[in-house]
Amino acid sequence: MLIREALAEDFAGLYALDQACFVPGISWSKAELAYFLKYPRNFALVAECGARQIAGFTIAGTLRREGALLGRLITLDVQPEMRRRRVGGILLEAVEERLRVAGAEVLVLEVAVDNEAAQGFYERHGFRRTGRIRGYYLGRIDALTMEKAL
Ligand SMILES: CC(C)(COP(=O)(O)OP(=O)(O)OC[C@H]1O[C@@H](n2cnc3c(N)ncnc32)[C@H](O)[C@@H]1OP(=O)(O)O)[C@@H](O)C(=O)NCCC(=O)NCCS
């Protein structure tokens, strides 16, 4: 499996994968995906397998909070048929390495309270719960905030 930067020609594949990963309203519109891909402090990585098949992708970035540089995981999407084969773990490790090099001390993220698979995945990767944001998704589903020291 190859981990590489996302390219402009990946857009349709990334959009389709995000639609396959999240219910309408939580999955992004094309405009939202384009915004997160282009935002200057963000980067996007693709896990490619076989004949240029996208097995998964991630978008992450950096932000400043009280003077400290934080990493933020914006999304991490793995094809349903490719799950539990370490694709997500490899993408997450690539994000963590890139953020460490950039000087980030902590990686933060939000995950829906009903997304037990992702919570299990993040806990396995050393994240701890730090809080809860009411109505973060669709105005009615809470998010858990999680973080991990880099
Ligand atoms: C969460 C997600 C990215 C995990 O990707 P993945 O490639 O399946 O993860 P890995 O194979 O690297 O899993 C590593 C470990 O994480 C944990 N884990 C992964 N999926 C899990 C699940 N469904 N339930 C519980 N633990 C899980 C396990 O400990 C797993 O190790 P194991 O398979 O040896 O038990 C994937 O399920 C996904 O794309 N979900 C839909 C999109 C999503 O919710 N993204 C996160 C948004 S915040």
Provide structural commentary.
- With 150 residues, this protein is of the alpha+beta class.
- It has a domain at 2-105: Gcn5-related N-acetyltransferase (GNAT) (Aminopeptidase).
- The protein contains four helices and seven strands, in the order E-H-H-E-E-E-H-E-H-E-E.
- The chain has helices spanning 11-21, 30-38, 87-102, 116-124; strands spanning 2-5, 42-49, 53-65, 68-78, 106-112, 128-137, 141-149.
- It has a seven-stranded mixed beta sheet, with helices on both faces.
- The longest helix has 16 residues, at 87-102.
- The chain binds coenzyme A (COA).
Keywords:
150 residues, alpha+beta, Aminopeptidase, 7-stranded mixed β-sheet, 7 strands, binds coenzyme A
Helix-strand layout with pairing:
Elements: E1 2-5, H1 11-21, H2 30-38, E2 42-49, E3 53-65, E4 68-78, H3 87-102, E5 106-112, H4 116-124, E6 128-137, E7 141-149
Parallel strand pairs: 4-5
Antiparallel strand pairs: 1-2, 2-3, 3-4, 5-7, 6-7
The chain binds coenzyme A (COA).
Residues 21, 76-78, 83-89, 111, 115, 117-118, 120-121, 124 line the site of coenzyme A (COA).
